[in-house]
Write a structure and sequence with these properties.
The complex is a heterodimer. By secondary structure, chain A is mainly alpha-helical. Chain A has nine helices and two strands, in the order ααααββααααα. Classes of the chains: A mainly alpha, B mainly alpha. Chains A and B meet through α1, α3, α4, α8 and α9 of A and α1, α2, α3, α5 and α6 of B.
Chain lengths: 290, 211
């Protein structure tokens, strides 16, 4: 850039230097850019200025930083058992999916030596069950189960008789569980909301649960359903929870459509999903990271 | 992985959430992502390799410890940059007698390994290396704020607003710093005999050598 070009002096018509910078870095509007281009054609001073800035930028690209060898890594101290919070993290993430897809708001997830136990409390008042006049729970159950016996949940699953993909089976299982629970729902005239029976509130992903009493035999029945399912599926479920938490995003996106449809049927607001997730994050924030 | 899985990339904020839950793998993922940019930032702001490495370590250490304090209103990277810049500022204040060091001669090999352009000829590489050193020296003539603004804009690609947030100043101040910084830079480079030409850096170095 020779000095011969700098024969102009800035005038009042010249824009602020800030505009040059804005256009230089491509953050100007089309109007601003056009206006500046017009001015630059007429003003040697600003034109020289702009070229100088562009020249400086061109030189800057030559200045590279040295290579960095990997320097920082967080190493988990070896434990006999994973921290409770890690499991809660996984479990809570999983329970969000489980809770939503099963249509039941309250899930209590516990991690013990024997594996993962899932308990469900009662869901909320505005759950609209499929209309069923059948008042005998077992009869309602048998209509969805394969046999007339009280075999819990889902004929086609990852059990010995199932030859499905793990993902499908898991979803099928939860869907069937949901169906059964809704069938149970239909057997009752009134649905009474309750707080989660979980003594550890941090582990439960709660919906908008009100605190009211619930028929205890009902709770027992629901828990029995879950327990029976648990007994058979315990190992699988633990595995699934881990995998689910890892592939959470994938499941969420794939399930979201299904879930939203399901939610629509049950009359649950889709924003509850976000509430659960926010709740989990709030709860997790109370514990300092290891 | 099932055959129909698309590679989902966790966002920074999702990794933070998982890290808060105790998942150190997730935090290490974040480190992997942001180590180099943070190092490049610290290196250019401070001008020293070893100290820049210290800044990186300290940045992630602090980030790990105060993950719970990350509210999620800002971007995770912005939060990280702020921690790093504060550490840089602290270091500069402590070492005021020698605030900025130009690139040492023996760093060349590492530099080349870092950011080699594809199909770059050796003479082009040498020219770029020389220019790089000249730029590093010229940067010393800028104020800390100007230099930081230029680095954040040129090498980290932040928007004006993001820089304003990090430097706690108005938008117009950022632009002024950039204007002044670039102007000073160019003057310094000319003083050192380095002239940039539109057609390429090779020509610039050639012209500089001829003077």
């Amino acid at each position: 850039m020779s000095d011969a070009k700098r024969n102009g002096t800035p005038s009042d018509a010249c824009p602020e230097k800030e505009l040059l910078v804005t256009v230089l870095y491509g953050e100007a509007s089309d109007a601003e850019r056009a206006a500046l281009a017009t001015h630059l054609r007429a003003c040697a001073s600003c034109s020289a200025d702009m070229s100088a800035l562009e020249g400086a930028r061109a030189s800057l690209s030559a200045w590279s930083a040295p290579e960095l060898a990997r320097g920082f890594e967080v190493v988990e101290r070896p434990l006999v058992r994973r921290s409770w919070w890690t499991v809660v993290g996984y479990a809570a993430a999983a329970s969000v999916v489980l809770g939503v897809s099963a249509g039941v708001a309250n899930l209590d997830v516990r991690y013990g030596e024997d594996g993962v136990r899932l308990r469900t409390g009662w869901s909320r008042a505005d759950v609209a069950p499929a209309a069923r006049t059948n008042t005998a729970p077992s009869a309602a159950v048998s209509s969805t189960a394969a046999a007339g016996t009280d075999t819990p949940v889902v004929a086609a699953t990852t059990g010995p008789q199932g030859v499905r993909q793990p993902d499908d089976a898991w979803r099928t299982e939860m869907a069937a569980l949901e169906t059964r629970l809704r069938a149970e729902l239909g057997a009752r005239e009134r649905v009474v909301p309750t707080a989660s029976p979980a003594p550890v509130p941090a582990a439960a992903v709660e919906g908008r649960a009100a605190t009211a009493a619930v028929p205890t035999d009902w709770v027992r029945q629901v828990q029995r359903l879950i327990d029976e399912s648990e007994v058979r599926q315990q190992q699988n479920l633990a595995l699934r929870i881990t995998e689910v938490s890892r592939d959470f995003e994938l499941q969420r996106r794939a399930d979201l459509v299904q879930v939203q449809q399901g939610l629509g049927q049950l009359g649950i607001d889709a924003t509850q999903h976000k509430q659960m997730w926010d709740y989990f994050r709030r709860v997790a924030n109370q514990e300092p990271p290891r | 992985m099932p055959h129909d899985v698309v590679n989902i990339r966790w966002t920074d904020e999702e990794l933070v959430a998982k890290s808060i839950g105790g998942d150190t793998d997730s935090f290490n993922q974040l480190v992997l992502r942001w180590e180099r940019p943070i190092y490049a930032l610290a290196y250019r702001v401070i001008g020293r390799e070893e100290e820049a490495r210290d800044v990186v370590q300290e940045t992630f250490l602090r980030a790990f410890r105060s993950l719970g304090g990350f509210k999620g209103q800002a971007k995770f990277s912005s939060w990280l940059y702020r921690i790093a810049l504060n550490l840089c500022r602290d270091w500069i204040r402590r070492e005021r007698r020698a605030p900025f060091a130009a690139t040492p001669e023996d760093v060349d090999v590492i530099e080349l390994a870092g950011e080699t352009e594809p199909r770059e000829r050796p003479d082009e590489l040498a020219a770029r290396r020389d220019l790089g050193r000249a730029v590093a020296r010229a940067m010393a003539a800028l104020t800390d704020e100007q230099r930081t603004a230029v680095i954040l804009k040129e090498y980290q690609g932040l928007t004006f607003q993001e820089i304003a947030d990090l430097q706690d100043c108005p938008l117009s101040t950022v632009k002024t710093r950039l204007y002044q910084g670039l102007t000073v830079l160019r003057k310094e480079l000319h003083r050192a005999g380095v002239y940039e030409m539109p057609q390429g850096l090779g020509a610039a170095d050639q012209e500089a050598k001829e003077r």
